[in-house]
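User: Can you predict the 3D structure for this chain?
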Amino acid sequence: MRQIKITKGLLIVLILSLFPLLNLFHSGLPITHDGLDHAIRIASFYKSLTEGNLIPRWAGELNWGYGHPVLMFLYPLPSYLASFFHFVGFSFVDSLKILFGSAFILSGIFMYLWLRKFLNDKAAIIGAVLYLFAPYRFIDLYVRGAIGEHVAFLFLPLVLYAILKLNKLPNIRSLRSYYVHFIFIAFSFAGLILSHNAISLLFIPFVVFYIFYLYYENKSRVKFIFSFMSLLFGFLLSFFFWFPAFMEGKYTL
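Assistant: Here is the predicted structure, written as structure tokens:
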């Protein structure tokens, strides 16, 4: 795939995305509904990782020391990312704030990149800024502290951008470029599923509709099949999370 060009519009979106994050530079964690809970769960997740559990299931320190199966049902990607930041030296609180900030910035960048593929630069900037400054985004960030939903907003435009890039490829000359975009879509879609259960379920019908819409536009069966197969592969990449959560939910209350 071609490298992303640093355009004037991209810089504008990047700079504007920094202003809502200034409050994260204060010491401590903003007081939110779930922010502290997430920091505690990520600490338990990280401890489980250090014990050799690559897919943590049990939070042994929670529930007054009796343990809790929350990690089995809690979208794991934000915990993996925050654990990485903690591993390189940041506190759990700072790791969570870095994740909030970076996900917010990247969500605007990916929205701009997607819109820029079919709109002019000014429209793409406006769309990306509206996506960043939608009131619900600030509720997630500074009221609810919903890290899963917050990270999922990064993947919504990324999935659409990846699908559109595949459908903009010229007719098949080399399968290599198709396979590269296939992997791009699959990992983006898996990232969405692993970021937040409910958001991914709400978004899947729109993704399917988008693939059909692009097929109606370009009439390419190969791109249509590649797009759907990449979603299926994304499901398989996230299988380790959603399948046990779905199958074992009946054993918990």
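DSSP finds twelve helices and no strands in the chain. The longest helix spans residues 92-116.
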